[in-house]
Amino acid sequence: xxxxxxxxxxxxxxxxxxxxxxxxxxxxxxxxxxxxxxxxxxxxxxxxxxxxxxxxxxxxxxxxxxxxxxxxxxxxxxxxxxxxxxxxxxxxxxxxxxxx
Length: 100
Known about the structure:
The chain is an all-alpha fold. It has helices spanning 12-20, 25-32, 36-45, 61-70, 75-82, 86-95.
């Protein structure tokens, strides 16, 4: 994760290559010392489609996210626990009617 240091030392093309090699966004972030959000935004800015992580691959994920939110956890905490980006957690909560 970052510590407030500008992320000028990370080559976005290297991040893209690592992700396209099959690593998860979290693994890429850990490898390059950047946040999951930074990896996600870098991929999005470069029009790299993220791999699907829902559906049959993750049965019960939405229920788990809702349960964690009802326990009072923040979206950032939930994202870390379920290994998703905060935006994905927010979208799932919104679709489930838990958030507006």
